[in-house]
Amino acid sequence: MRPLNITVVGATGAVGSLFLKLLGDSTLPLASVNVCASQSSVGKTVQFRGKTLKIQLADELAFRDSDVAFISVDASVSKEIAPLAIAQGAVVLDDSSAFRMNSDVPLVVPEVNAEDLNGIHKIIAIPNCVTVPLVMALHPLHKENPIKRVIVDTYQSVSGSGKKAMDGLISETAAVLEDRLIDPLVYPHRIGFNVIPHVENFLDNGYSHEENKIIHETKKIMHSPEIYISATCVRVPVMIGHCESVHVQFNDPITPDRARELLESFQGIRVVDDLELLQYPTAVMASGSDDVLVGRIRQDISVENGLVLWLAIDNLRKGAATNALQIINCLVEKNLIGKEST
Amino acid sequence: MRPLNITVVGATGAVGSLFLKLLGDSTLPLASVNVCASQSSVGKTVQFRGKTLKIQLADELAFRDSDVAFISVDASVSKEIAPLAIAQGAVVLDDSSAFRMNSDVPLVVPEVNAEDLNGIHKIIAIPNCVTVPLVMALHPLHKENPIKRVIVDTYQSVSGSGKKAMDGLISETAAVLEDRLIDPLVYPHRIGFNVIPHVENFLDNGYSHEENKIIHETKKIMHSPEIYISATCVRVPVMIGHCESVHVQFNDPITPDRARELLESFQGIRVVDDLELLQYPTAVMASGSDDVLVGRIRQDISVENGLVLWLAIDNLRKGAATNALQIINCLVEKNLIGKEST
Questions:
Q1: What is the predicted ipTM?
Q2: Distance between CA B152 and CA B137 in Å, rounded?
Q3: Partner residue opposite A308 with nearest CB, options B198, B230, B297
Q4: Is the domain of B86 the same as that of B154?
Q5: A174, A300: one domain
Q6: Which of the residues of A are catalytic?
Q7: Is the pLDDT of residue A245 over 80?
Q8: For position A127, what pLDDT does the model report?
Q9: What band does A330 get if pLDDT is binned at 50, 70 and 90?
Q10: Are residue B186 and residue B300 in the same domain, yes or no?
Q11: CA A126 to CA A97: how far, in whole Å?
């Protein structure tokens, strides 16, 4: 392959800066890397493979000769920037919710639906960071034993809302420890030492946009619109690492041992499930790992053919940046980008 | 009625000290209050209605003439102390799991099953602090429309493990903020800025003892062994306030509006459910309140006749001390304690 030209938009954000780090650490041959961010960051610099890169505005120029544009900004901004990248011939990898449910946009977790990467789409969407662990855990089980219904309750870290939210949690926590009163810095209510059942805005049916995403993105990625899914998405005072309690109902009987076998042999999953040694996934354990951690695997005693699972993921890594890099590697392997000119 | 003699065992603990405060603030006529705790606290003092009370050992003497012994200590200790109190003629209100599932021990949340207080039992058990909000929310719905299945995932504060756990969370949090490495102080894993899917020891079927409690206590209190229940119990870095995500399946259709009506008119429940104003229960909101807060009431889109709810409770108050005081008031109203001698 020929070395790639990659443009990163949102390069100073929580996901963008991690993506740059992972890209730098990867063995991917690169011809050039452009870094873009919002007006306030233009002119600042970031380090990449020992070089200093200057932050630019995400205009047409930024995408000239780009093979891939990785965009990690708000959905509304993404909608404006993606067309500029496409116009310059780049494949857009978008981390926002802007395009995920478009019928002509593949929504990809490579271990689950790499076959959806077929070279005919100009935009490829990265799923929401709570969707990724769910489809990773459900897919190997669903292939063997069709899933009928899923209930998922999330425990989401503040880094899902970006760097400012992480700083806000630190400030709020310090204020509580020092017995100072402060207004909520990040969310409508204080998150320091609190739990908030509210991630993204609410819809008319009482679900939040985040809950709606997890439901519809899961069906799309798994190509299984017939699965019934319900979710409650909750913010917890954790820096990095999303956890999920998952209750699954299958068509046919399945034992926890069989589920453990299927999950252990699935690329990208690490089973952490030894109750005698008090080993199970936690948010802190997931932080810094590229795997989806699965544990507390047991029969659901409230229903026929049911299992209960507990998941943890580094929401910035496999929940976003790692998944994006894996998609780029997948596109390269399929010879869909970086083709030698003939 | 004649004024009561009450002995409080565990008077220096998180629940015991709050119970004393609530008892002091109540209008209950009291003849005497004895306070007991473990050997290490004997001789210390606590304040009660303007008087200084000396901590004693919980031996037979401590219960002489007691009408009620409120015991909030570890289950193993409770099993030793309760018989001493009974031998002295006291009615035991026990906050531990020691006696809850005994067939001859009523397990009581007064709003739900006050009828189980009939004067023939020497021990009355206070339910687990995650069971209380669940039965409070389910009971008014179940009376109108029988519940078939419940799935509950909890978000439990550290005060459920007592005062030491609260101090430990503060220390761990400060250490993380100062970038100091420390061993876990409270649980097998760090709880500061973390989420741990582990409350109490694990059973052979993969459920934890806490999950087992919520399942079996709920059926007992509601006199409904036919309800199918599954639970995952999770510790979160919160001081006071347990939250629960609850998915309920009913026999017959039920709308969120009807559920809201039934819950709003149920004593002890406060519906906090205005998504436009971003009002829903949080752990911090519940802390200091004697009500069970219910919100995020919506149709469960994954099943027929399903609802999703979000609960929050002050686990030390209605989850323990408030509930105990309500039981004492109930016993007085029923003339089961404090009877005038004839």
A1: 0.96
A2: 12
A3: B230
A4: no
A5: yes
A6: 129, 242
A7: yes
A8: 97
A9: very high
A10: yes
A11: 8
Asked if A195 lies within 8 A of B153 by C-beta distance, the reply is: no
Q: Are residues A329 and A306 in the same domain?
A: no
Kindly determine whether residue B205 and residue A298, on different chains, have CB atoms separated by under 8 Å: yes
Q: Which residues contact B268 (CB under 8 A, 6 or more apart)?
A: B111, B136, B290, B291, B292, B318
Q: Give me the pLDDT at residue B1, please.
A: 83
Q: Is the pLDDT of residue B337 over 70?
A: yes
Residues 6+ apart with CB under 8 A from B152: B130, B134, B214, B229, B230, B231, B232, B244, B245, B246, B247
CB pairs under 8 A between A and B: 171
**Closest of A204, A222, A223, A58 to residue A140, by C-alpha:** A222
One domain for residues A299 and A181: yes
How many residues comprise chain B?
342
CATH number of the domain at B292, please: 3.30.360.10
Question: Is the pLDDT assigned to residue B221 strictly greater than 90?
Answer: yes
Hey, what long-range contacts does B109-116 have (CB within 8 A, 24 or more apart)?
B109/B135, B109/B136, B109/B221, B109/B323, B110/B323, B110/B326, B110/B327, B110/B329, B110/B330, B111/B136, B111/B139, B111/B266, B111/B267, B111/B268, B112/B136, B112/B139, B112/B221, B112/B222, B113/B221, B113/B222, B113/B223, B114/B330
A147-191 residue pLDDT tens: 999 999 999 999 999 999 999 999 999 999 999 988 898 899 999
- The pLDDT, as a whole number, for residue A119 is 87
Closest-CA distance of chain B to residue A222, Å: 17
**Which residues of chain B lie closer than 8 angstroms to A177, CB-CB?**
170, 173-174, 177
Counting the structural domains of chain B, the total is: 2
Residue at B341 is within a domain: no
What's the whole-model pTM score?
0.97
Chain A partners of B238 at a C-beta cutoff of 8 Å?
Answer: 193-195, 237
Domain extent at residue B71:
4-127+320-333
pLDDT attached to residue B341:
72
pLDDT at A289 over 70: yes
Mean pLDDT across A18-44: 95
CB A141 within 8 A of CB A218: no
- Alpha-carbon gap, residue B139 to B124, rounded angstroms: 20
Is residue A341 predicted with pLDDT exceeding 80? no
* From A205, A228, A278, residue closest to B302, measured CB to CB: A228
* Active site residues per annotation of B: 129, 242
Backbone angles phi, psi at B131, to 5 degrees: -75, -40
> Would residue A338 count as lying in a domain?
no
DSSP annotation string for A56-93: E--SGGGGTT-SEEEE-S-HHHHHHHHHHHHHTTPEEE
Query: Are A234 and A112 in a shared domain?
Result: no
Query: Cβ–Cβ of A298/B229 closer than 8 Å?
Result: no
